[in-house]
Amino acid sequence: MNKLLIFITFLALSITVIDAKEGMSLEDISKVSSVGDMQISPDGAWVAFTKSKPRTPYKDEDGNAWSELYLIATADGAEPRPFITGKVNISRISWSHDSKKIYYTAKRRDDKKTALYALPIDGGESQRILSYDNGVGSYSVNHDGSKVVFIAKTKKPKHLEKLSKKGFKAKVYEEDIQTNHLWLADLNQEEPKAEKIKFEEHLVSAKFSPVSDQLLVQSSPTSLIDDVLMLQTLQIIDLKGRTKTKFKTEGKQGKAIWSTDGKLVAFLGANDYNDPTAGALYVANARNGKIAKRKNNKDSHIMDIGWLGNDVYYIEHKDAESRVVKSDGSTNATLVAYGNGIQTSMSLASNGQLALKTNTSTHPNEVYLASSSGSKRITDSNPWFADIAFGKQEVFNYRAQDGLDLQGVLVYPINYKKGKDYPMIAFVHGGPEAHRSNGWNTRYADPIQVAAANGYVSFIPNYRGSTGRGDDFARADQRGYADPEFTDIVDGKNALVEEGIVDKDKVGITGGSYGGYATAWSATALSEHYAAGVMFVGISNQLSKFGTTDIPNEMHAVHSRVWPWDDFQWMLERSPIFHVKKSKTPLLIMHGENDTRVHPSQSMELYRYLKTLAQAPVRLVLYPGEGHGNRKAAAQMDYSMRLMRWMDHYLKGKGGKPPNYDLEHEKKLESDKKDK
Fold first, then answer.
1. Distance in angstroms (rounded) separating the CA atoms of residues 387 and 594
2. pLDDT for 7
3. Which of 305, 311, 383, 384 has the alpha carbon at shortest distance from 343?
4. What is the C-alpha to C-alpha distance for residues 357 and 344, in angstroms, rounded to an integer?
5. How confident is the model at residue 109 (pLDDT cuts 50, 70, 90)?
6. Residue 434 — pLDDT band, cuts 50, 70, 90?
7. All domains in the chain, ordered by first residue
8. Total Cβ atoms within 10 A of residue 544
């Protein structure tokens, strides 16, 4: 009997060990894969999709993640088929109209530039069907497969290279930029040659009509990002570049598509020039240009659209959830209700089969199919997640000081115990015309599930100015830089303290871009509320930021609503450098050296002010070759490590002087050699 009890006890302990799961590590984040592009075949039988293949830090040559091509049948129980894998970058996938082949762009084999390929799905090798001296960009194949248009820049004159070798390298700022042009090629030719369509504006997108050779094009006066954001136009042209229909639009513009019969056009657009986002759905007559608003963004924002027959399909984000709706203009039918994951894009087949790219709190974007019961998942990019423990995630509602109802996403520590106060990190999104949903929120700059595994509460606030709650809420921070939008974050922290979840003296804050601005403001003007801060590509001086950014008009139109020269003092007082004497918060500042959106001088300014004042620890880390956010594996890993070590040091450790600046990456290299 005693032997039996011992055996049962041993068996129970063994099962416990086998079932035990650990939380995510930073190394885990670096290997997370997700679905990128996704297109369903016209007959609804297949979904082609790209899947990211991250590079392994310390082992692989540094660079962006690879992008592989997969195919999966929509029939029940189907498994994805790898079509093109390895060290490849497949992008811009689409289907032939007969569903027999997949088009994609890539730089393969002996390609010097990105080319257009076609891959038969019933077997056979990819065929390069079009190349161009300066590379093939986004493209559209016409209704019978005989023609293709694509976007590309003209090839630089040869004399520029010769002059450069002689030292003539002067750049004329914002004037010697290249413009995207539209090119046409006949695919019936054995070796198609591209000819430029006479159209003078900078091309953003071009799509063939489903029934004719007319093109729906989005363009801007120049290729400057400010013009692309704020001065985009929408029109229909023929293959000679002549305008057939021009639609009167204003402000920001999103996706634009043809109706199935080519008689109508749907697009996402702003309400006016000062609307922060293109969150309303419009339908227009393709012949006379008359526009009607199909779905307003009074309390939500439309994120993606599709069209089949008389129905427009759209993904609607409201608060921290999303849903999928089918609308014929008079009635709306919910296909996937709120609370069934976060849908980010869609693809429609001719038979009505709907594919969705969806994420949840426990996985990044995967392929789902809409069904009578909502939607079902058909891919699993990270089967190893089965062995990972995730912190519980939920929506957290609270009220601002001025009475405004607010929301955020809350992630608890793994093995959370009610009644215990935990250290907290506030992860602040950028924009501010963006929002974070109740889906997958973990990435290199927001290692939220790593924080959960290490005993932190993570708070992801959708402060005023965020999207997802309609036009009025998105405009609520205009002419209101920093206050009250960033006090919204403090109010969330205070509410969590009152709930008995968070230790008020162990709160950190981090964010990138506008979230970096929030962090800088919180570490200066609101310093008494935060014990640590990590600022990424953030703003420290609204005056000098205006003079060094590539989006000055967008800043004025949808953020400040005043020019610096009309109110220098207001701009200055809304700058963290103005409040540095209040700073007591240890601040780690990180920035890409090639950032044009928020110039690295913004980080340098704040660093120098704080360093000279010497009231609180400060450190500045710059990433060569990186821009407005890190793209390469090594820089992402380095950033994540520095972020978490800074928080651990000041929220869980002894604090005081900063931790050693050297991460000792070489030790990891040495350990990897031993492993081999």
1. 39
2. 43
3. 305
4. 6
5. confident
6. very high
7. 389-666 (3.40.50.1820)
8. 18
| 382-385 CB contacts, 8 Å cutoff, 24+ apart | 382/32, 382/33
Exposure b/e, 314-336, CB count within 10 A at least 16 = b: bbbbbbbbbbbbbbeeeeeeebb
Sign of CA dihedral 225, 598, 154, 110: negative
CB 518 within 8 A of CB 488: no
What's the CA gap between 509 and 534, in Å, rounded?
6
Q: What is the H or E stretch that residue 491 is in? A: helix 487-498
Half-sphere exposure of 39 (CA within 13 A, CB side): 16
What CA dihedral angle connects 583, 585, 590 and 595, to 10 degrees?
-40
CA triplet 413, 338, 469: central angle to 5 degrees? 85
Query: CA 284, CA 263: separation in Å to the nearest integer?
Result: 9
Structural tokens at position 183 = 């090119």
pTM over 0.70: yes
Residue 178's contacts (CB-CB under 8 Å, 6 or more residues apart) are: 153, 154, 156, 223
**Beta strands 342-348 and 457-462: pairing type?**
unpaired
Strand partners, 592: 623
Other Cβ atoms within 10 Å of 2 Cβ, number: 6
- What is the structure's pLDDT at 444? 97
Q: Please, what's the largest Cα pairwise distance for the chain?
A: 92
Say how far apart CA 521 and CA 489 lie, in whole Å: 11
End-to-end CA distance of the chain: 49
Per-residue pLDDT at 19 exceeds 60: no
Specify burial of residue 582 (Cβ count, 10 A radius: 0-12, 13-18, 19+). Answer: middle
Q: Which residues contact 191 (CB under 8 A, 6 or more apart)?
A: none
